[in-house]
Design brief:
CATH architecture: Alpha-Beta Complex
CATH class: Alpha Beta
Number of domains: 1
Largest sheet: 4 strands, mixed
CATH superfamily: paralog of FGE (formylglycine-generating enzyme)
Number of strands: 11
Order of helices and strands: EEEEHHHEEEHEEEE
CATH topology: paralog of FGE (formylglycine-generating enzyme)
Distance between the termini: 17 Å
Strand order of the largest sheet: 9-8-7-10
Helix content: 10-25%
Length: 253
């Protein structure tokens, strides 16, 4: 795990989508966050202890060549169970974003974990045309060297300011927060970022929505172009071949 000290940071994006605005200052208590996504090998230990279910599809889970790749085809609840088994929990959205793109040396927000400019060599993004017709802008096919997922920690040059790996690309990562989409054309649904607490925000009431946030981008989608402030969401029971997770842990005073 890597350590993120207590303090304030700027969350959200002034040039992003409606759900990323407004930018706002947030205070977080100190915490630890996993260095990488949980791998198939790590998740297998939880399954062996009978605290986790097998992934919905075991096509990668049962393939020893994918032992060090992120565990995928896991739901939000599966991720919760794993983190609880490991004595941890899912990070909040705010914790994930601070660990990914806040630079404590400059007190500035980065666009990507490594800096302000997209580079297809800095993470595992959508650069293949063999599985679908999409490809990231300003990207040559095969730029990052992987068609699908990559072993966790394959891009050390894109380490976040706090030392975390894979926070841009590879697989989307489940976080703790529940989510309600805001209609950009006007809606009675209040944008959570406009009313969220300025200290240790936990997301909208999970009782009123089945959606949970994923962060960070993946090898197979162009959503958000890998920006650290971008927010995507899936149903808490959904499983995908490009969604995994990492865990967090509050720091003990």
């Amino acid at each position: 795990m890597v350590y993120v000290p207590e303090g304030r940071f700027i969350m959200g994006s002034e040039f992003g989508l409606t759900d990323e605005q407004p930018q706002h200052e947030v205070f977080l208590d100190a915490y630890w966050i996993d260095l990488t996504e949980a791998s198939n090998g790590m998740y297998r230990q939880c399954v062996a202890d009978k605290k986790c279910d097998n992934p919905e599809s075991t096509i990668f889970f049962d393939d020893t060549d994918y032992r060090d790749h992120p565990a995928v085809f896991v739901s939000w609840e599966d991720a919760q169970n794993y983190c609880a088994w490991a004595g941890r929990r899912l990070p909040t959205e705010a914790e994930w974003e601070k660990a990914a793109i806040w630079d404590p040396n400059t007190n500035e927000q980065r666009t990507y974990p490594w800096g302000g400019k997209y580079d297809c060599r800095m993470g595992n993004f959508d650069d293949e045309l063999s599985l679908d017709a999409s490809i990231m802008p300003d990207t040559n096919e095969g730029c990052d060297g992987f068609v699908g997922s990559a072993p966790a920690g394959s891009f050390p040059e894109s380490t976040s300011p706090y030392g975390a790996l894979d926070m841009g690309g590879n697989v989307w990562e489940w976080v703790h927060d529940a989510f309600i989409e805001v209609d950009p054309l006007g809606s009675s649904v209040q944008n959570y970022y406009a009313i969220s607490p300025d200290s240790n925000p936990q997301g909208v009431d999970p009782e009123i929505t089945v959606y949970r946030v994923v962060r960070g981008g993946s090898w197979s989608t162009m959503f958000g172009f890998g920006r650290g402030a971008y927010r995507l969401w899936y149903g808490l029971d959904e499983i995908h071949d490009d969604v995994g997770f990492r865990c967090a842990l509050p720091a003990v005073p």
